[in-house]
């Protein structure tokens, strides 16, 4: 069962049969146990500060990948519409409770490896604490690139294997894996830490340019977190975050990457929600609205719409 913590980072993986496998948060109490009761006010505030430094002030349509229970979503208030995408419908239901149904929020259950959106749609995307679960990170990043419009902003948070603690542990012989190696390390099933250079290489190969790098969560130490109020510790972290331009030795790193501009300008963003989607099975961009589902006339697939969540994980 996902949601029980045997490691301070993230829940135990409950692997799906998809390929690559998905770390399944269905039924997980992640938001409550990890954030609200997990003593992570400092981390949450430090992330809010990093996001404020990186987010565009305003925009048309934002894609939040691995949105979970919508912890960060209110921070994207400058966007006219926000698509919350997550594999777990129970996480999305919690996000609905927090943010409400309808209005500017669109809830989508889908696999990041198989995104159900028209190409070149979003003018911004964020992916926070989610690449962490990707066994095939370059494949996930390529899917995201395809969904972004020319000139779009992509804010990516990743767990950094080259952090001070892991370097010290390695030097002291208390950790077998080498933090300096470029390959991801899977320290718990479906939980990966990445080398900053590997991430930069993958983004570069996909055509992104990296505009800013922030080192985040310098003070993720129980003793400090207990002694110093979270607000103050996070403000201090905020002062140190820009050092990410020079080195990244923190457990968390935020990047702001940009898609190349296109001389034909941006694509038009459709008004109707149905026109945001493509069929993830056959790529058809003209889905039809039916009672309780979206229908793909090209391959006959039916994609459920239940409780305000468009579900593209498995066809009906
Ligand atoms: C650690 S939580 C982070 C949630 C949120 N971004 C936050 O920071 O509070 C990771 C989220 O990624 C989602 N996830 C993991 N693998 C996924 C995949 N392949 N496709 C879509 N969502 C995925 C999980 O369901 C979970 O909600
Ligand atoms: Zn289809």
Walk me through the structure.
The chain is α/β, with parallel strands linked by helices. The protein has 2 domains: 30-269, Rossmann fold (3-Layer(aba) Sandwich), CATH 3.40.50; 272-311, N-terminal domain of TfIIb (Single Sheet), CATH 2.20.25. The chain contains 8 helices and 13 strands. It has helices at residues 30-36, 41-54, 89-99, 137-147, 164-171, 196-205, 222-227, 230-240, and strands at residues 59-65, 79-86, 105-109, 122-127, 148-159, 185-188, 191-193, 209-216, 252-258, 288-290, 293-295, 302-306, 309-311. An 11-stranded mixed β-sheet has the order 8-9-5-4-1-2-3-13-12-11-10, with helices on both faces. The protein has a two-stranded antiparallel ribbon with strand order 6-7. Helix 2 (41-54) runs parallel beside helix 8 (230-240). The two termini are 25 Å apart. The site of zinc ion has 8 residues, from loops.
List keywords for this structure.
alpha/beta, Rossmann fold, N-terminal domain of TfIIb, 2 domains, two-stranded antiparallel sheet, disordered N terminus, binds S-adenosylmethionine
Mean pLDDT: 93
The CATH architecture of the largest domain is: 3-Layer(aba) Sandwich
Number of helices: 8
**Which compounds are bound in this model?**
S-adenosylmethionine, zinc ion
The domain count comes to 2
Distance between the termini: 25 Å
Overall geometric form: globular
Kindly report the CATH topology of the largest domain.
Answer: Rossmann fold
- Tell me how many strands there are: 13
Protein structure class: alpha/beta
Strand content: 15-25%
Cα Rg: 19 Å
